[in-house]
């Protein structure tokens, strides 16, 4: 078994995080290096490395994660808009090998990303 990712350690409460939402399937917490006034990470409790590793059996879980994104966008009053990002792999800029959706809001975000 490979070493636990930092996000798995957060799920297992081995390291602290500013958790804003939790249910049986997922966890959401504040990004430690926020890139916007609201910057949350939504992660499945199931260990999935990235969007490149999802399988058909994960379909319902993935839909659930996006519903949690919408719920948190409402809770954090992102009615002017928000951005949801899943960096994937080396060229996608992924730094933690546990699937996560970034939820960014409360500022005007530029496009395209760098
Ligand atoms: P990515 O680069 O897309 O894989 O995103 C990983 C994100 O996790 C980055 O935005 C980091 O700032 C964030 N991060 C890393 N370690 C922690 C931590 N212990 N608590 C909260 N966020 C973290």
Question: TL;DR of this structure?
Answer:
With 114 residues, the protein is α+β, with helices and mostly antiparallel strands. It is built from 3 helices and 5 strands. The chain has helices at residues 6-11, 59-75, 89-92; strands at 19-22, 26-30, 38-44, 82-85, 101-105.
Strand order of the largest sheet: 1-2-3-5-4
Q: Report the uncertain regions.
A: none
Give the overall pLDDT as a whole number.
Answer: 97
Please name the fourth-level CATH homologous superfamily. HIT-like
Ligand inventory: adenosine monophosphate
**How do the SSEs run, as a string of H and E?**
HEEEHEHE
Assess the beta-strand content as a share of residues: 15-25%
- What's the CATH first level? Alpha Beta
Return the CATH architecture.
2-Layer Sandwich
Q: Which range best describes the helical content: under 10%, 10-25%, 25-40%, 40-55%, 55-70% or over 70%?
A: 10-25%
Shape: globular
Main sheet attributes: strand count, strand direction, barrel closure? 5 strands, antiparallel
CATH topology value: HIT family, subunit A
Measured on Cα atoms, how large is the radius of gyration? 14 Å
Number of helices, where a helix is a run of at least 4 consecutive DSSP H or I residues: 3
Number of beta-strand segments:
5
Q: How many structural domains are formed by the residues?
A: 1
Structural class: alpha+beta
Terminal Cα span? 34 Å
If you had to describe this structure to a student in words, what would you say it looks like?
The chain is α+β, with helices and mostly antiparallel strands and 114 residues long. The protein has one domain (6-105): HIT-like (HIT family, subunit A), CATH 3.30.428. The protein has three helices and five strands, in the order H-E-E-E-H-E-H-E. It has a five-stranded antiparallel β-sheet, covered by helices on one side. The mean pLDDT is 97. The site of adenosine monophosphate has 12 residues, from loops. Adenosine monophosphate is lined by residues 6, 17, 29, 31-33, 41, 87, 93-96.
């Amino acid at each position: 078994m490979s070493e636990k990712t930092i996000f798995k350690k957060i799920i297992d409460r081995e390291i602290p995080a500013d958790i804003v939402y939790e249910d049986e399937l997922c966890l959401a917490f504040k990004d430690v290096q926020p890139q916007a006034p609201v910057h949350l990470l939504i992660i499945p409790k199931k260990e999935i490395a990235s969007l490149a590793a999802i399988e058909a059996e994960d379909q319902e879980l993935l839909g659930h994660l996006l519903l949690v994104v919408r719920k948190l966008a409402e809770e954090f009053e992102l009615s002017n808009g928000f951005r949801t990002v899943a960096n994937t792999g080396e060229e996608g800029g992924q730094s933690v090998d546990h699937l996560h959706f970034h939820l960014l809001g409360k500022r005007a975000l530029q496009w395209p990303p760098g």
